[in-house]
Amino acid sequence: MAGIGFELYKILYKGTLSSIVQAFFLGMIIVAGPWILSVLTIYIIQTYTFGAIADNPALFTVSIVYVYAFSLFLSGGFHYVFSRYIADQLYIENYATIPSALLTAIILITIISIPLALAFVFFNDFSSVPYHTLYILSLVSLFVVINILWIMLVYIALLKAYYKIFFSYLAGTIASLYGVLYLGKLYGVAGALCGYTIGQAVIVLLLITISQIAYPFKKFTINKEFIASFKEHKRIFLMGCFFNMAIWSDKMLYWFLHGQHIPGTLYYYYIPYDIPVFLAYLTMIPGLVYFLIIAETDFHKKFFEFISHILEDPFRYIQLKKHKMLLSLKNGIKGIVFFQSIWTIGILIKLPVILDFLGYSHTINIHILRILLIAVFFHMLSLNLMIYLLYMELQFEAAMAACLYLVFNIAATLFSIYYFQLLPGTSYMLASVATSLYCSYHLYKKAPIIDFIIFNRT
Amino acid sequence: MDFVAINKPDPSKKTICIIAEGSYPYITGGVSAWIQDIISGLTSYNFIIFAISAEEDEPKYSFPPNVIGLVNRLLTAPVAKPQKSIHPSFFRTIESFHNDMMQKKDFSKFSDIFRFINMHRYDPSTLQRHITSFKIVTQYNAIRNPLYPFSDYYWAWRSSHEYMMKIMTWDLPPADLYHTISTGYAGLCAAIAKIKYNKPVILTEHGLYNKEREIDIKRATWVKGYQRDMWINIFNDLSAITYEYSDCIISLFEVNRNIQIAQGAKREKTLVIPNGIEIERFWDLKKETRKEFSIGIVARVVPIKDVKNFIIMAKIVAESIPDVKFYIIGPTDEDESYYEDCVKLVENFQIQDKVIFTGKADVRQYYKFLDVVVLSSIREAQPLVILEAYAAGIPVVSTRVGNVPEMLDYNDILLADPKDSEKLAQGVIYLYNNPDYREKLIAANRNKVIQFYNKKDLIATYDNLYAKYIGMYTS
């Protein structure tokens, strides 16, 4: 995503307070726009149900959560390979292949997601849900739409049209809210889900339109090179798959092993953990924005200065570039840790007040949330470290880190459920800490010998 | 070791291992013919051929009965069952060897490196991908190549050292004496045989391997920046290592001997043994007289022989001598695109009716009627063709390469600088216009060949050398 980071960096370095606020706000839109808005939408709908989903509020929320969770759980690898392919094409300035790669990605993800959603429907009995045909149609459509939305999210990082993107989100969110209210009144949960889906589809369509203006499809072709790149980037693919599965595995285990059940369906949910998780996730945003605008952007610049000189320059010059890059890496990590820890610690201290303000002080176990805040800190850190590993072409190490994350999280969650009765979130925190350490170790060991690694690989 | 048994060994005879790189028995030419002559002449020894090649091929020579085996090692083949872990003290040895070599021109620690690599069967690829190797390379890069791209230095090191390390994992067949026909990789093999078996090593250099490689490298457009210097240094060092481990260093003529000494060969080890030919095969050829003036070049149609130079000369000569024929006698299939270029050149000059490409042929049939033999090479050592022509009673006009000036008595009429077709043509035309001079030359040349270049003498000299050094090491 460094491409967009450059633009924000420019805004940031105007140096005024308003430019800093502007840069961070725009960065937030790119990093977490749809995510914040969906959490916000669900929060609004849940808190002020307006009677629209009064007949079965849990079913409505859980349906949406499942769509988000499983779409992310299953498509992580796809996103990373897509992102890498686009980045490579930009690096070699081969812009012509970019729109066709987007088209191919959308078609592929649609083809993959429809049977998955249908299979899910097949194992459920939704007959007790009023207007269940509409419900099933909306559920399958939402799964496809959200999967496409993730792809668009990777893609729009290319576009500099922040405000257009923001207003697309806003328009879609309003459409979702209005849809939920209007159709919910008419058709209950099925109608509400349909209304929500329409709003999300509006976002997707608007984003496609915006991207169409920047990089128009000239010919309706499938990009075979993109499909072939999955073979080349199999480690990145695995890393993405493992990482997304890792961060969802503890939540899912809690659903299925500890959660409440909606009769007739495969839906399980575990309120004591789910709501703190969504709240805690939101605290990751400042760290991610910092990474996007400052850390990654600076590193990207230094990294490419290093890499583009390695074949043409004397050793001392390569070393100079390497040291600048390593310095940027060090400062980047330091910055993320510093910035995010201030934020996290601040929230930890003021947590009772914040919960009071949000009206959650009686429904949420504050200890779980505390653990989760620490977990999310390391989750964000390990994600950023993994991205650094990918830059350094240490794809194997990145894939191993994600694999460790997954295995550790599953094992620790099972242990804490069956043996130690630890608070939910502890396993996720331990896994995140372990993964951060693993990534740090490899960066510490291998980044200083990156020149050796590059020469050895060629 | 991929040893192919050829003939049954005679246990009463001592065994000589001939080490040949890129020549016998796969490539035809002067050096290969010389090896074949030595083997066939020295019937009192068993011979094993240790050939170093770039790719698999079929032998081009039929082996004499005293050849008992053939080993063909490919530089491109991977090391069998290599050991992956590397002893840390190996890198210290590497460093001290390079320091001695660079500062004192002392190659004595080579044997330590060889023992490490050979005993442990270190895989060159594993060795080169080791972090310590990289550190050592960057250290030397800082000394030798501080201002130019590191990648050139790195790649030159990777490609050049890979072959040397690979060779050090090889085992040579046991023998009583090792005779290498060049320095370079063959010389390296001889050195490792000496270290491993403590047997005598004889080196015969027809040309000067490192100088020839230097010319190749300077002409190759794909060798960039420091790569050129490193390759040249390495070939010089390989020559120095070969000299260090050889008991006897032979050159074909004095000039080369002096260069060998200048490159570090100990004077007392050096010796000049010129080429020799079977004079009788050419002496009694029944001469045919043809009405046209016949000029021949006896050479493979390859760039190093500069056949194009000969063709340009032919064009110039044809303008002065109306009734003339040119024969290009030698195989045309070694470098087909070069051959095609030559044919096109002949067509462009419109002298197709005067120039004949004979292909591989029995040269004696042509020596019967040739009036002049021309040599247009860019590089030669001591060309057998000149000796054959002398024995057959044909005067020679040639480029000034290798030992040719001495063989032509520094006769300015008959010598031209490489690529100087005009001067070659003048020499030929002079001979055409001065038949008496031609006769004088023929007589003098025949005497010379009998005196200095008789194959019988050559064989006898090598017989004595083999016996002397084998004796020295057995006692």
Please, could you describe this protein's structure?
The complex is a heterodimer of chains A (458) and B (475). Chain A has 15 helices and two strands. Chain A is mainly alpha-helical and 458 residues long. Chain A has a two-stranded antiparallel sheet. The longest helix of chain A has 53 residues. Chain A is globular and about 75 Å long. In chain A, 50% of the residues are buried. The mean pLDDT of chain A is 85. The mean pLDDT of chain B is 91. In chain B, strand 13, helix 16 and strand 14 form a beta-alpha-beta unit. Chain B has 19 helices and 14 strands. Chain B has 475 residues and is an alpha/beta fold. In chain B, helix 6 packs parallel to helix 9, helix 12 runs parallel beside helix 13 and helix 12 crosses helix 17. In chain B, the strands form two sheets. Chain B has an eight-stranded mixed sheet with strand order 1-4-3-2-5-6-7-8. Classes of the chains: A mainly alpha (458), B alpha/beta (475).
Mean pLDDT level of chain A: 85
Strand order across the largest sheet of chain A: 1-2
| Biggest sheet overview of chain A | 2 strands, antiparallel
State the share of residues found in helices of chain A, binned by percent: over 70%
Head-to-tail CA distance between termini of chain B:
29 Å
Secondary structure topology:
The complex is a heterodimer of chains A (458) and B (475).
Chain A: H1 2-12, H2 17-47, H3 57-91, H4 97-122, H5 132-156, H6 162-214, H7 224-232, H8 234-258, E1 260-261, E2 268-269, H9 271-282, H10 285-309, H11 315-358, H12 366-391, H13 395-420, H14 426-446, H15 450-457
Antiparallel strand pairs in A: 1-2
Helix pairs in contact in A: 1-2, 1-10, 2-6, 2-10, 3-4, 3-5, 3-6, 3-8, 4-5, 5-6, 8-13, 9-12, 10-11, 10-12, 11-12, 12-13, 12-14, 13-14
Chain B: E1 3-5, E2 14-21, H1 30-41, E3 45-53, E4 67-74, H2 88-104, H3 110-120, H4 124-128, H5 131-144, H6 150-169, E5 177-180, H7 184-197, E6 201-205, H8 209-219, H9 225-245, E7 248-251, H10 254-262, E8 270-272, H11 279-283, E9 293-298, H12 307-320, E10 324-329, H13 336-348, E11 355-359, H14 363-367, E12 372-375, H15 384-392, E13 396-399, H16 404-407, E14 415-416, H17 421-433, H18 435-452, H19 455-474
Parallel strand pairs in B: 2-3, 2-5, 3-4, 5-6, 6-7, 7-8, 9-10, 9-12, 10-11, 12-13, 13-14
Antiparallel strand pairs in B: 1-4
